[in-house]
Specification:
Bound molecules: NADP nicotinamide-adenine-dinucleotide phosphate
Structural class: alpha/beta
Helix content: 10-25%
CATH architecture of the largest domain: 3-Layer(bba) Sandwich
Number of domains: 2
Number of helices: 6
Number of strands: 17
Strand content: 25-35%
Order of helices and strands: EHEHEEEEEEHEHEHEEEEEEEH
CATH class of the largest domain: Alpha Beta
Largest sheet: 7 strands, mixed
């Protein structure tokens, strides 16, 4: 037994984020009998919970994003994981008894912990064109699962050419009469299977080599003004009732800037053990700098982070064996 003094209310680990990465880390560490708290913030509006259908998570042929995350959560809770719906505002280095740990300040409380796993994911980017902010909720949307039913029998545009844009365009065809995918290049970034489905879908048309200049409308969206990038000074207007924007992600890492090293796009830099540049701070999932952002890779990162953090905490407590 170690005789190191650690304040009683100190957690071994606080996991920040309630998506697949965070819940996997929470499941592994609580199953290993560690004292763990997961702060899930605004998990209801996260990428996974707003995804209509996931069909590439091995072992689960088809499930909604919300359903899959809820299963992760129930499984983690069954091993005793404590979860609170609080938003983390900042983390600071702070001693807990004899050891250096971290203090986590939420919108509700302040917690002490020996280590932190950051798994805050990423949010959808905005396009930054005139009309976009003005018409949010009046024709501009970043979530087809949430808003597609409002466009039954109507025409909509989808901006972007990645997996999200094409998957959401396909989903929108269940409701809309026509879906125009507006993409800035002449080929899609999305994976081949999604491309094949989109090209085969009669309701989907493409506006290639086109950037959005402006969202048009008065009380609500009435159209999109696009620029044909390969033809000088050529602009067109497409009449639509709704515009769904899926032009990539921004990591939710503002609260940790200055504490850990970030890459040029704001993603957290980790080593292969999910260690960040700050002692006792680990990270996993979509908020880290990496090439493939999928549910399955977030879960893998979460398991690795859990293993690394367990070794770290044992060493800190003088219990390493
Ligand atoms: P993404 O892969 O970064 O694609 C963003 C798309 O938006 C690209 O086509 C990009 O064009 C376009 N874009 C970016 N900025 C733009 C701008 N200012 N104006 C116009 N177009 C712009 O993002 P994502 O589709 O959200 O996917 C994020 C991650 O989640 C990816 O790793 C993806 O594989 C993963 N994901 C996977 C699945 C799945 O497996 N089923 C589903 C959803 C997401 P360019 O192509 O020209 O760069």
């Amino acid at each position: 037994m170690s005789d190191i003094n650690i304040s009683e209310d100190t957690y071994d680990i606080i996991v920040v984020g309630g998506g697949p990465g965070g819940l996997t880390a929470g499941l592994y560490t609580s199953r290993a009998d560690m004292k763990v708290l997961l702060l899930e913030g605004n998990a209801q509006a996260s990428q996974i919970t707003m995804t209509d259908m996931i069909e590439n998570y091995p072992g689960v042929p088809e499930i909604s994003g919300f359903g899959l995350n809820d299963t992760f959560k129930k499984q983690a809770l069954s091993f005793g994981l404590e979860i609170k719906p609080e938003q983390v505002n900042r983390i600071n280095r702070k001693k807990s008894g004899d050891v250096e740990g971290w203090e986590i300040t939420t919108d509700n409380d302040v917690y002490q912990t020996l280590s932190v796993i950051v798994s805050t994911g990423a949010a959808w980017s905005s396009l930054g064109v005139p009309g976009e902010q003005e018409f949010i909720g009046r024709g501009i949307s970043y979530c087809a699962t949430c808003d597609a039913p409002f466009y039954r029998g109507r025409e909509v545009a989808v901006i972007g050419g990645g997996d999200t844009a094409i998957q959401e365009a396909l989903y929108l065809t269940k409701f809309a009469s026509k879906v125009t995918v507006i993409h800035r290049r002449d080929r899609l970034r999305a994976t081949a299977i999604l491309q094949q489905r989109a090209f085969a879908n009669e309701k989907i048309t493409f506006a290639w080599d086109s950037t959005v200049e402006k969202i048009l409308g008065e009380d609500g969206v009435t159209g999109v003004k696009i620029k044909k990038v390969k033809t000088p000074d050529r602009y067109e207007e497409i009449s639509v009732d709704g515009v769904f924007i899926f032009v990539g992600l921004v990591p939710n890492t503002a609260f940790i800037k200055g504490i850990v090293n970030l890459d040029k796009d704001g993603y957290i830099i980790t080593d292969r053990d999910m260690k960040t540049s700050a002692e006792g701070v680990f990270a996993c999932g979509d908020c880290i700098s990496k090439s493939l952002r999928q549910v399955v890779t977030a879960c893998g990162d979460g398991a690795t982070a859990a293993d690394s953090v367990s070794l770290y905490v044992d060493e800190l407590k003088g219990q390493a064996y």
